[in-house]
Specification:
The protein starts with 13 loop residues before the first helix and ends with a helix. The longest helix has 27 residues. It is 58% helix and 15% strand. It has one domain. It contains 7 helices and 2 strands, in the order H-H-H-H-E-E-H-H-H. Strands 1-2 form a two-stranded antiparallel ribbon.
Length: 151
Amino acid sequence: MGKRGPAPTYKPEFCPIAYKFCLLGATNEDLAGLFEVCLATIGNWLARHPEFKQAVQAGRDVVDADVAHALLHKAKGFTHTDVKILQIEGEARPVEYNRYFPPDTQAAMFWLRNRRRKQWRERIELEHTVTDEKLRELEEAGIRARNAHRR
């Protein structure tokens, strides 16, 4: 077995860097690349240095909250102040206006399925009974399929 080198040294200065990097969506793998250490080292730092763990979690919490906020706005619909450049009397002028973004059904369903699972989960109910009528329909479909190539 080869010799192991000294463990990479943790530095308190890593906390604000990790925080900012996590604001950008950094994973533990990304942090390992940034600090040029192996993934296990990041795990060790998280376990042994509460200030590092707090910085990483705080960065991730801020981003998660921002995304949840944006998703909620998209689900509900919103109005946003925007600027158009219009030519008025031969001169380009910025004009503010309120731009409306309607509610997004997919965003609303995603939100509700995650926040209110019991009430909004997709229910797939299978019919377990086979009636004589369904059997007859299947039989007829099979006969038509077998005879299709003869035509």
